[in-house]
């Protein structure tokens, strides 16, 4: 497949479990739209049909040429290298879309911050982003596999990877509030990872299917500007503090577990030593001459000194003395 056609796709608005569909629906109708990353214009065309006027930005010149007929203006270039305020001047947009674009950028947070300045009052951003916590990737990692692919979750051109939590943090740090979350759901064994369900125990696959985030292949979000963005420095400090707190808690938990395990091991070793000592003591008793003689004499004694007879009394005393010796061995253990 030619490189500029790599992201070509058919759009079916009846299929709501599609990132393209949700991106279009969240954008709305009759909007002034800036579409960052038009590719060959499969979304652009439908936006135009729904009454939107679309300005496109596309880094691939060949793909831009295919999408251009659906745009009021096409800009060929890298959105990360653009000064959006200078490029558009006083022009403002109702919606800026990033359809599977943010994960390809070096600094998506800076691009989102710059986008704030070209949004019209009440404007918003719509973006679709793959979920790196999808079950197919979790299961693949269990077998030590993290292989890039031409398309999909591990597209070979992805530079950033997001979960629901880190995606929310990305927008919050850039000064947005996400108002709408849409999930594109996909079973873990039908993705480009090519996993086989037979390779995993049922309890594991069942657990994955019960986790809503694990079944989410992509998130599609709508976000509005809400506050001043968090500076890169304070963002890093916050992340470092959060990481430090998490690491400290993990270490404390680990140390406590090690202490509990160590105490249990010591108790087990002491019990094993006591058992060994007891066994040695009993072996000494059983191996003594007196014990062996007594064992051999049991049958004749029953004949010569039947139970209840006066001749039985000395034997009873001797037997009690032997039992007392055994108890003392147990007490010492």
Question: Concise description?
Answer:
The protein has 333 residues and is α/β, with parallel strands linked by helices. Helices cover 48% and strands 16% of the residues.
Identify the notable features of this structure and list them briefly.
333 residues, alpha/beta, Rossmann fold, 3 domains, seven-stranded mixed sheet, 12 helices, 7 strands
Folded structure, characterized:
By secondary structure, the protein is of the alpha/beta class. The protein has 3 domains: 3-229, Vaccinia Virus protein VP39 (Rossmann fold); 231-276; 288-333. Helix content is 48%, strand content 16%. It has 12 helices and 7 strands. It has helices at residues 19-27, 42-49, 61-67, 84-88, 108-115, 135-142, 164-173, 202-209, 212-215, 232-287, 289-304, 313-332; strands at residues 32-36, 53-58, 73-76, 93-99, 119-130, 176-185, 216-225. It has a 7-stranded mixed beta sheet, with helices on both faces. Strand 2 (53-58), helix 3 (61-67) and strand 3 form a beta-alpha-beta unit. Helix 10 packs antiparallel against helix 12. The model has no long low-confidence stretch (mean pLDDT 84).
């Amino acid at each position: 497949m030619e490189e500029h056609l790599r992201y070509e796709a058919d759009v079916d608005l009846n299929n709501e479990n599609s990132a393209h569909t949700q991106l279009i629906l969240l954008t709305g109708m009759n909007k002034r739209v800036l579409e960052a990353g038009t590719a060959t214009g499969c979304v652009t065309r439908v936006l135009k049909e729904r009454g939107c006027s679309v300005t496109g930005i596309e880094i691939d010149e060949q793909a831009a040429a295919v999408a251009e007929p659906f745009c009021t203006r096409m800009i060929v270039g890298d959105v990360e290298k653009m000064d959006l305020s200078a490029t558009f001047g006083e022009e403002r947009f109702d919606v800026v879309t990033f359809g599977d674009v943010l994960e390809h950028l070096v600094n998506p947070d800076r691009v989102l911050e710059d986008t704030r300045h070209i949004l019209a009052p009440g404007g918003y951003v719509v973006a679709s982003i793959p979920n790196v916590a999808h079950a197919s990737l979790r299961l693949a990692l269990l077998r030590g596999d993290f292989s890039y692919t031409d398309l999909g979750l591990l597209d070979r051109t992805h530079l950033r990877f997001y979960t629901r939590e880190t995606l929310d943090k990305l927008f919050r740090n850039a000064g947005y509030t996400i108002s709408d979350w849409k999930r594109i759901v996909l079973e873990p064994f039908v993705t480009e990872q090519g996993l086989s369900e037979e390779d995993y125990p049922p309890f594991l696959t069942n657990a994955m299917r019960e986790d809503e985030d694990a079944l989410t292949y992509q998130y599609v979000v709508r976000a509005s500007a809400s506050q001043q963005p968090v500076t890169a420095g304070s963002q890093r400090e916050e992340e470092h503090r959060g990481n430090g707190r998490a690491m400290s808690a993990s270490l404390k938990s680990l140390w406590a577990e090690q202490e509990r395990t160590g105490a249990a091991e010591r108790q087990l070793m002491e019990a094993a030593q006591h058992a060994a000592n007891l066994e040695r003591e009993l072996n000494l008793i059983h191996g003594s001459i007196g014990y062996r003689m007594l064992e051999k004499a049991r049958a004749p004694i029953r004949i010569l000194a039947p139970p209840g007879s006066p001749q039985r009394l000395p034997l009873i005393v001797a037997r009690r003395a032997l039992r007392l010796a055994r108890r003392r061995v147990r007490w010492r253990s």
